[in-house]
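Minutes, project check-in
Item: structure for the 259-residue chain
Input as provided by the requester:
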Amino acid sequence: MTKEERHTAILDSLLKQGSVLVTDLASRLEVSSVTIRKDLTDLEKEGKLYRSHGKAIIINPFTNNRTVSEKEMLNTEEKRLIGLEASKLITPDDSIVLASGTTIHAMARNMRPENRLTVVTASLQVAEVLAPYENVELIQLGGNVRHTSLSVVGKYAEMILAGFSFSKLYLGVDGIDLDFGLSTTDMREAEINRAMMKSAQKIIVLADSTKFGRRGFAKICNMEDIDIIITDNRLPQPTRDQIEAMGIELIIADGDNQN
Protein backbone atom coordinates (compact mmCIF):
# COMPACT_ATOMS: atom_id res chain seq x y z
CA MET A 1 0.00 0.00 0.00
CA THR A 2 1.39 3.39 -0.99
CA LYS A 3 1.59 6.42 1.28
CA GLU A 4 -1.26 8.10 -0.60
CA GLU A 5 -3.44 5.00 -0.26
CA ARG A 6 -2.76 4.89 3.49
CA HIS A 7 -3.71 8.56 3.83
CA THR A 8 -6.98 7.93 1.99
CA ALA A 9 -7.74 4.92 4.17
CA ILE A 10 -6.99 6.88 7.35
CA LEU A 11 -9.29 9.75 6.35
CA ASP A 12 -12.04 7.31 5.35
CA SER A 13 -11.84 5.70 8.79
CA LEU A 14 -12.03 9.09 10.48
CA LEU A 15 -15.08 10.14 8.49
CA LYS A 16 -16.87 6.94 9.52
CA GLN A 17 -15.77 6.78 13.16
CA GLY A 18 -14.82 10.31 14.21
CA SER A 19 -11.60 9.08 15.84
CA VAL A 20 -9.22 6.16 15.44
CA LEU A 21 -6.31 4.74 17.46
CA VAL A 22 -2.77 4.54 16.06
CA THR A 23 -2.56 0.87 17.04
CA ASP A 24 -5.82 0.05 15.24
CA LEU A 25 -4.65 1.80 12.07
CA ALA A 26 -1.31 0.00 12.15
CA SER A 27 -3.03 -3.36 12.49
CA ARG A 28 -5.63 -2.65 9.82
CA LEU A 29 -3.14 -1.25 7.27
CA GLU A 30 -0.43 -3.80 8.17
CA VAL A 31 2.32 -1.26 8.84
CA SER A 32 4.20 -0.20 11.96
CA SER A 33 2.91 2.33 14.48
CA VAL A 34 5.90 4.52 13.56
CA THR A 35 4.71 4.65 9.95
CA ILE A 36 1.16 5.53 11.04
CA ARG A 37 2.40 8.31 13.32
CA LYS A 38 4.37 9.79 10.40
CA ASP A 39 1.25 9.59 8.23
CA LEU A 40 -0.81 11.33 10.91
CA THR A 41 1.82 14.05 11.26
CA ASP A 42 1.68 14.71 7.51
CA LEU A 43 -2.12 14.82 7.50
CA GLU A 44 -2.19 17.10 10.53
CA LYS A 45 0.16 19.55 8.79
CA GLU A 46 -2.29 19.58 5.88
CA GLY A 47 -5.11 20.44 8.32
CA LYS A 48 -7.02 17.23 7.62
CA LEU A 49 -7.03 15.82 11.16
CA TYR A 50 -5.89 16.45 14.72
CA ARG A 51 -3.60 14.18 16.74
CA SER A 52 -4.31 13.56 20.42
CA HIS A 53 -2.96 10.94 22.88
CA GLY A 54 -2.24 8.05 20.53
CA LYS A 55 -5.19 8.64 18.27
CA ALA A 56 -6.42 10.89 15.48
CA ILE A 57 -9.67 12.82 15.33
CA ILE A 58 -11.37 14.57 12.47
CA ILE A 59 -11.46 18.04 14.08
CA ASN A 60 -9.40 20.14 16.45
CA PRO A 61 -10.96 19.40 19.86
CA PHE A 62 -10.22 22.82 21.31
CA THR A 63 -12.95 25.31 20.55
CA ASN A 64 -12.39 29.04 20.09
CA ASN A 65 -14.21 31.93 21.73
CA ARG A 66 -16.19 33.37 18.82
CA THR A 67 -18.52 36.35 19.04
CA VAL A 68 -22.27 35.73 19.19
CA SER A 69 -22.72 37.23 15.71
CA GLU A 70 -20.23 34.71 14.27
CA LYS A 71 -21.91 31.80 16.09
CA GLU A 72 -25.37 32.85 14.88
CA MET A 73 -24.28 32.07 11.30
CA LEU A 74 -23.18 28.51 12.10
CA ASN A 75 -25.52 25.48 11.85
CA THR A 76 -28.60 27.70 11.90
CA GLU A 77 -31.12 25.05 10.82
CA GLU A 78 -29.79 22.49 13.30
CA LYS A 79 -30.05 25.05 16.10
CA ARG A 80 -33.60 25.94 15.07
CA LEU A 81 -34.70 22.31 15.22
CA ILE A 82 -32.93 21.76 18.55
CA GLY A 83 -34.58 24.87 19.96
CA LEU A 84 -37.97 23.66 18.76
CA GLU A 85 -37.55 20.28 20.48
CA ALA A 86 -36.36 21.98 23.67
CA SER A 87 -39.40 24.25 23.76
CA LYS A 88 -41.69 21.19 23.68
CA LEU A 89 -40.42 20.13 27.12
CA ILE A 90 -41.86 23.23 28.81
CA THR A 91 -45.00 22.47 30.85
CA PRO A 92 -47.85 24.75 32.03
CA ASP A 93 -46.90 27.00 34.96
CA ASP A 94 -43.27 25.95 34.56
CA SER A 95 -40.29 27.75 36.07
CA ILE A 96 -37.12 27.48 34.00
CA VAL A 97 -33.69 29.04 33.71
CA LEU A 98 -32.17 29.71 30.30
CA ALA A 99 -28.41 30.06 30.09
CA SER A 100 -26.79 31.76 27.10
CA GLY A 101 -25.64 30.91 23.60
CA THR A 102 -27.05 30.86 20.11
CA THR A 103 -28.85 27.51 20.55
CA ILE A 104 -30.59 28.86 23.67
CA HIS A 105 -31.47 31.96 21.66
CA ALA A 106 -32.95 29.67 18.98
CA MET A 107 -35.03 27.97 21.66
CA ALA A 108 -36.41 31.32 22.85
CA ARG A 109 -37.44 32.19 19.30
CA ASN A 110 -39.35 28.90 19.08
CA MET A 111 -41.20 29.34 22.37
CA ARG A 112 -44.92 30.12 22.15
CA PRO A 113 -45.95 30.10 25.82
CA GLU A 114 -49.74 29.89 26.18
CA ASN A 115 -49.81 29.37 29.96
CA ARG A 116 -48.08 31.18 32.76
CA LEU A 117 -44.32 30.69 32.62
CA THR A 118 -41.48 31.95 34.80
CA VAL A 119 -38.14 32.43 33.03
CA VAL A 120 -34.85 33.52 34.54
CA THR A 121 -32.07 34.11 32.04
CA ALA A 122 -28.48 35.30 31.77
CA SER A 123 -28.92 36.10 28.07
CA LEU A 124 -29.80 39.62 26.94
CA GLN A 125 -30.97 38.23 23.60
CA VAL A 126 -33.33 35.75 25.23
CA ALA A 127 -34.81 38.47 27.43
CA GLU A 128 -35.43 40.63 24.38
CA VAL A 129 -37.23 37.77 22.57
CA LEU A 130 -39.47 36.83 25.53
CA ALA A 131 -40.21 40.34 26.82
CA PRO A 132 -43.36 40.84 24.65
CA TYR A 133 -45.15 37.84 26.23
CA GLU A 134 -47.35 39.16 29.04
CA ASN A 135 -47.87 35.68 30.51
CA VAL A 136 -44.11 35.21 30.94
CA GLU A 137 -42.69 36.34 34.28
CA LEU A 138 -39.26 37.30 32.99
CA ILE A 139 -36.29 37.88 35.28
CA GLN A 140 -33.06 39.15 33.75
CA LEU A 141 -29.97 38.36 35.81
CA GLY A 142 -27.73 41.31 36.54
CA GLY A 143 -23.96 41.54 36.64
CA ASN A 144 -21.09 41.91 34.22
CA VAL A 145 -21.99 41.60 30.54
CA ARG A 146 -19.83 39.41 28.32
CA HIS A 147 -19.63 41.28 25.03
CA THR A 148 -18.85 38.17 22.96
CA SER A 149 -21.93 36.28 24.16
CA LEU A 150 -24.26 39.14 25.21
CA SER A 151 -24.80 37.36 28.51
CA VAL A 152 -24.41 38.17 32.19
CA VAL A 153 -21.75 36.65 34.45
CA GLY A 154 -20.33 37.36 37.89
CA LYS A 155 -20.89 36.84 41.60
CA TYR A 156 -23.97 39.10 41.76
CA ALA A 157 -25.83 36.92 39.24
CA GLU A 158 -24.71 33.76 41.06
CA MET A 159 -25.99 35.18 44.36
CA ILE A 160 -29.43 35.84 42.86
CA LEU A 161 -29.62 32.29 41.47
CA ALA A 162 -29.04 30.84 44.94
CA GLY A 163 -32.48 32.12 45.98
CA PHE A 164 -34.37 30.41 43.15
CA SER A 165 -35.58 26.87 42.38
CA PHE A 166 -36.29 25.78 38.81
CA SER A 167 -37.79 22.66 37.28
CA LYS A 168 -35.37 22.81 34.36
CA LEU A 169 -32.13 24.41 33.24
CA TYR A 170 -31.56 24.73 29.49
CA LEU A 171 -27.82 24.90 28.98
CA GLY A 172 -25.78 25.76 25.91
CA VAL A 173 -22.13 24.66 25.77
CA ASP A 174 -19.04 25.08 23.60
CA GLY A 175 -17.82 21.52 23.94
CA ILE A 176 -18.99 18.03 24.90
CA ASP A 177 -16.24 15.48 25.44
CA LEU A 178 -17.56 12.19 26.79
CA ASP A 179 -14.44 11.76 28.96
CA PHE A 180 -13.82 15.38 29.99
CA GLY A 181 -17.44 16.53 30.28
CA LEU A 182 -19.13 19.79 29.31
CA SER A 183 -17.12 22.96 28.81
CA THR A 184 -17.17 26.55 27.65
CA THR A 185 -14.53 29.02 26.52
CA ASP A 186 -14.92 31.39 29.48
CA MET A 187 -14.25 30.63 33.15
CA ARG A 188 -16.93 33.07 34.36
CA GLU A 189 -19.50 31.45 32.08
CA ALA A 190 -18.67 28.05 33.56
CA GLU A 191 -19.13 29.42 37.09
CA ILE A 192 -22.58 30.85 36.45
CA ASN A 193 -23.58 27.66 34.62
CA ARG A 194 -22.68 25.65 37.74
CA ALA A 195 -24.71 28.04 39.89
CA MET A 196 -27.70 27.47 37.58
CA MET A 197 -27.27 23.72 37.89
CA LYS A 198 -27.45 23.90 41.67
CA SER A 199 -30.84 25.63 41.42
CA ALA A 200 -32.40 23.30 38.85
CA GLN A 201 -34.01 19.87 39.20
CA LYS A 202 -33.29 18.76 35.64
CA ILE A 203 -30.34 19.71 33.40
CA ILE A 204 -31.08 19.83 29.67
CA VAL A 205 -28.16 20.46 27.30
CA LEU A 206 -28.73 21.96 23.85
CA ALA A 207 -25.83 21.36 21.47
CA ASP A 208 -25.50 20.76 17.75
CA SER A 209 -23.38 17.81 16.64
CA THR A 210 -20.28 19.92 15.92
CA LYS A 211 -19.87 20.50 19.68
CA PHE A 212 -19.17 16.81 20.37
CA GLY A 213 -15.58 15.68 20.77
CA ARG A 214 -14.52 19.23 21.60
CA ARG A 215 -13.30 20.99 24.71
CA GLY A 216 -13.48 24.61 25.81
CA PHE A 217 -11.03 26.17 28.26
CA ALA A 218 -13.34 25.99 31.30
CA LYS A 219 -15.06 22.82 32.45
CA ILE A 220 -18.70 23.13 33.53
CA CYS A 221 -19.48 19.63 34.78
CA ASN A 222 -19.13 15.90 34.20
CA MET A 223 -21.39 13.94 31.88
CA GLU A 224 -23.14 12.23 34.81
CA ASP A 225 -24.34 15.61 36.06
CA ILE A 226 -26.79 16.11 33.18
CA ASP A 227 -30.15 14.51 32.39
CA ILE A 228 -30.99 15.21 28.74
CA ILE A 229 -29.06 16.16 25.59
CA ILE A 230 -30.88 17.57 22.56
CA THR A 231 -28.84 17.54 19.36
CA ASP A 232 -29.20 17.10 15.59
CA ASN A 233 -29.28 13.99 13.42
CA ARG A 234 -25.65 14.33 12.31
CA LEU A 235 -24.40 12.91 15.59
CA PRO A 236 -22.65 9.59 14.78
CA GLN A 237 -24.36 6.43 16.01
CA PRO A 238 -21.40 5.28 18.15
CA THR A 239 -21.55 8.56 20.08
CA ARG A 240 -25.33 8.19 20.48
CA ASP A 241 -24.82 4.71 21.90
CA GLN A 242 -22.18 5.93 24.36
CA ILE A 243 -24.40 8.73 25.63
CA GLU A 244 -27.39 6.47 26.15
CA ALA A 245 -25.17 3.91 27.90
CA MET A 246 -24.37 6.64 30.42
CA GLY A 247 -28.05 6.85 31.33
CA ILE A 248 -28.52 10.24 29.62
CA GLU A 249 -31.71 10.75 27.62
CA LEU A 250 -30.84 11.68 24.04
CA ILE A 251 -33.30 13.60 21.87
CA ILE A 252 -32.49 13.91 18.16
CA ALA A 253 -34.02 16.98 16.54
CA ASP A 254 -34.56 15.95 12.92
CA GLY A 255 -37.59 18.01 11.99
CA ASP A 256 -39.88 15.02 11.45
CA ASN A 257 -42.24 16.01 14.26
CA GLN A 258 -42.58 19.74 13.72
CA ASN A 259 -45.86 21.31 14.73
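Outcome recorded: The first helix runs from residue 3 to 17.
No further action items on this chain.
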